[in-house]
Amino acid sequence: MKLIKNMVNYKLNMITADDLMKYASEFNIQLTASQAEKIAVYLRGKNFDLFDDNVRSKIIREIAKITGPKTAKEINQLFIQLTK
Hints:
This is DUF2624 domain-containing protein. The chain is an all-alpha fold and 84 residues long. The chain has helices spanning 2-13, 17-26, 33-43, 53-67, 69-83. 14% of the residues are buried.
């Protein structure tokens, strides 16, 4: 399990705008290229732990500032699926 956590967190902390756009398309999440770039800049290199509920909540609050609450809620649902 630790290996999977490390892989998910590594990907989150190294994500690019192109990655985000690909995932948004796969999971039917409305995301613009500008929003994807802003989110990627926020996430990259921060060493966030997506499996920590408090950290995930902080990330979602920041994403909501960029995308709005509806999209942030959809992204949160995706995060929850990834961490279960």
